[in-house]
Amino acid sequence: MLIGVDLDNVLARTTHTFPAWHNRLHNTTIQYRNMREFDMSNALGAPLAETIRKFNEFYESRNFAQMTPLPYAQEVIQQ
Question: Following CA atoms 43, 48, 54, 60 in sequence, which dihedral angle do they give, to the nearest 10 degrees?
Fold first, then answer.
């Protein structure tokens, strides 16, 4: 059995961490406050397929692996 959980901004601050990673790698100036929609293509100024590729790349990065969980995230998952 597989159980999925919503990590992005529920258990960790993904959209706070992603812009710094993206800016460093792609020489951009994306800011968290511009990431207002579920579809991040507008904030990235990229087609959906490229946006998905970039997020998948981020999910494999050290930045993603080292994100700090939000307060009480671990306790909630354990319950």
Answer: 120
pTM of this prediction?
0.77
User: 24-71 pLDDT, tens per residue?
Assistant: 999 999 888 877 777 788 888 899 999 999 999 999 999 999 988 888
Does residue 20 contact residue 63 with C-beta atoms inside 8 Å? yes
Long-range contacts of 21-25 (CB under 8 A, 24+ apart): 21/58, 21/61, 21/63, 21/64, 22/54, 22/58
β-strand partners of 8: 12
